[in-house]
Amino acid sequence: MIMLFITLEGGEGAGKTTQMMNMAEMFFEPKKLPWVITREPGGTEIGKQIRQILKSTNNTVLAPEAELFLFLADRTQHIKQIITPALNRGDIVICDRYLDSTFAYQGVARNLKVDLAGLHQLFDVPIPDITFLLDLPIGLGLSRAWHQIINGKRDYTQARFENEKFSFHENLRRGYLRLAKQEPHRFCVIDAKQSEEKVWRDIQKILNTFF
Ligand code: TYD
User: Fold this and answer.
1) For residue 138, what pLDDT is reported?
2) What is the pLDDT of residue 41?
3) Of 26, 31, 86, 128, which is most buried by a Cβ count within 10 Å?
4) What is the pLDDT of residues 160-192, one digit of tens each?
5) pLDDT at res. 211
6) 40: CA distance to ligand 1 center in Å?
7) CA-CA distance, 130 to 69, in Å (whole number)?
């Protein structure tokens, strides 16, 4: 039985969702391997309610510490209800954002001085086998994200993170790249300023080394 847990990470406008669909439909499906795609926040019904609070542009007063605990609440529920059962069944789990988002967004970009690794020990956290970090310059990522908002493909009422300052996004990118350096065996850094097709080819090359 193959047990594989894949996560996708990156800043705004990196194109994670497209690549997640590619992996499922163009790589695992033709191989007849069972897969599950999911995301954080919002991978469960309870998580969807939490996601609403976290993403709402109106929630400007949400305290960084409260934000952190909402992400952790979403994650605990998601692990218990979706991720662990799927891995135990032998499904390949592909998750759009996971614990590295918390390290990069809350730990580095929000600069919260809390023991995030310690907090994650409160519950059983499956560690991904592969984490694709879709890395791209901040200006490009934000302009892609805002383009989607203007075209109605992203909802402005849900843009609390897209609305953050440029320096927030710069710190975020730096945080992600540092995480990738710390765990080179797990992280694959992909140049996401390339075309969608080229990004997909790079991801496929890495997946081919596993299958
Ligand atoms: P989402 O629309 O899923 O983001 P994207 O389409 O950019 O992947 O919104 C999730 C937002 O929550 C995103 O801006 C990143 C942020 N986030 C955190 O700050 N910490 C976390 O632990 C997670 C999972 C997400």
Assistant:
1) 95
2) 98
3) 128
4) 999 999 999 999 999 999 999 999 999 999 999
5) 84
6) 7
7) 25
User: Tokens 């075309």 sit at which residue?
Assistant: 195
pLDDT of the residue at 1: 63
Residue 94: name the closest of 40, 26, 140, 37 by CA.
Answer: 37
Calpha distance 95→97 (Å, rounded)? 6
CB of 110 sitting under 6 A from ligand 1: no
Q: Is the CB of 101 under 6 A from ligand 1?
A: yes
This prediction has a pTM of 0.97
Nearest CA among 11, 40, 7, 8 for reference residue 135: 11
Distance 35 CA to ligand 1 centre (A): 22
Smallest CA-to-CA distance from 211 within 27, 16, 26 is with 27
CA of 32 to the centre of ligand 1 (A): 30
Which residues does the chain have with pLDDT short of 70? 1-2
Closest CA to 44 of 72, 20, 79: 79
